[in-house]
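Exercise 7.
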Amino acid sequence: GIYEGAGFPKYRPNAEGYPEKIDIDKRIRFVFGAYPDHYDTFRPHMDGEFVPAVKNAEGVMVANEKYKDIPGAVLRVGNLPNKGSRAANQGIHSGDDVILTAMGPGSAKVRGQLENSDLFRVMAEALALGKAAK
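Solution. The predicted structure, written as tokens, is:
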């Protein structure tokens, strides 16, 4: 199954708590709810900026063919406008504090102000995903 292989990444954090490189062994996947047509490769783009969609000769935003032949790439049909003045080649989002409630295993750790990355750790620990090395 999917969850048996889950666990915590094994990178050594830098002074800010982040890995020195983003191509680590285990990653959290964040997906936008609004996106253009694009090829999803399920991995970081180590060769530079990810440009998911480009304008074709008719001025329509289309999936960037650069990613089409990467092993495992899947075409995702987007839900953003792809032509005219509102055509978009990337998803957008904004963030705001939200009220969060929890019940069940680990719910006692969900209180006060909580960083979203800490919430993922609470969820992973509640589900017993990955065991700490001894």
